[in-house]
Specification:
The chain has five helices and no strands. By secondary structure, it is an all-alpha fold.
């Protein structure tokens, strides 16, 4: 009976956590289901080294994205086989997050 009681408590806790996470994702709206991995704007700015006034400049964001992707490309001979797919995905997520932010600002 002890094991059933522990399993029941575990199940109840898991359900509560699941429902809380589901509610939080609904609060976040489109950001929770987008392609930029729930990255917030401040993290995206840090990754691309953008200041608040530079966010509007998509050409600058693209330039920094391209440079960072090239620096983390294993196939680039300059990198001697060193690079990270994880970091590349974070860079792309940052660019997508900034693009999303600009689109939502334009929509208001």
């Amino acid at each position: 009976w002890y094991q059933r009681r522990v399993r029941g408590a575990f199940r109840k806790t898991f359900q509560e956590e699941y429902l809380a996470a589901k509610a939080k994702s609904k609060e976040m709206g489109a950001a929770a289901t987008s392609n930029f991995g729930n990255m917030d704007l401040s993290e995206a700015k840090k990754i691309l080294n953008l200041e608040d006034h530079e966010i509007e400049d998509l050409d600058l964001a693209q330039e920094r994205t391209d440079r960072l992707l090239e620096m983390n490309d294993k196939k680039n001979p300059k990198n001697e086989g060193v690079g990270s797919g994880y970091i590349q995905s974070k860079i792309l997520n940052a660019k997508e997050r900034i693009e999303y932010e600009l689109k939502t600002r334009e929509g208001k």
